[in-house]
């Protein structure tokens, strides 16, 4: 019998199954502060196709989700300008966890505790399959990024910091 490591259900995988979204599972060994680059390294993937889910907030402390390439940083200035906010900043880990229901390092845009506006770096949508957190540290799911737009109403932005 093959020993594929099936990760137990998370709110994210429940959400994806409920909406009949096809996804592949990719467990890896979680490393503190390793981020998308570390998961990409372990799984033999390009960090550009491993996307991170970031919980940020605007000047009124309203939370929002940003999905960004694993090898890019978010320009909060560009993001604020494109979303109509005065200012956007990352949430403190405890605040991010309260909004999303996920532990930092295991945040998924699917099945969040609170419904939040979602912004996705536009070029993420050009990739046929992206690897995104499946709702637990050390667990990515491979999906078609259009699901972010179709299911979550994610809006494309150009908020990556230029190299």
UniProtKB/TrEMBL annotation:
Gene that this polypeptide is encoded by: ybaK
Pfam families: tRNA_edit
Protein's UniProt name: Cys-tRNA(Pro)/Cys-tRNA(Cys) deacylase
Record-linked Gene3D superfamilies: YbaK/aminoacyl-tRNA synthetase-associated domain
Organism (species): Achromobacter aloeverae
Source superkingdom: Bacteria
Enzyme class: lyase
Listed EC numbers: 4.2.-.-
A GO biological process held by the record: translation
């Amino acid at each position: 019998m093959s020993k594929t490591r099936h990760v137990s259900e998370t709110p994210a995988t429940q959400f994806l199954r409920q909406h009949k979204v096809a996804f592949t599972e990719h467990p890896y060994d979680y490393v503190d502060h390793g981020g998308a680059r570390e998961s990409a390294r372990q799984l033999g993937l390009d960090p550009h196709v491993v996307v991170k889910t970031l919980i940020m907030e605007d000047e009124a402390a309203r939370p929002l989700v940003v999905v960004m390439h694993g090898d890019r940083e978010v320009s909060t200035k560009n993001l604020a300008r494109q979303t109509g906010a005065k200012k956007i900043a990352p949430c403190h880990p405890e605040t991010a966890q309260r909004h999303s229901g996920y532990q930092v390092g295991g945040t998924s845009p699917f099945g969040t505790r609170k419904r939040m506006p979602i912004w996705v770096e536009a070029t993420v949508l050009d990739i046929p399959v992206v690897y995104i957190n499946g709702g637990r540290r050390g667990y990515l799911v491979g999906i078609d990024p259009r699901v972010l737009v179709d299911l979550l109403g994610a809006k494309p932005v150009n908020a990556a910091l230029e190299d």
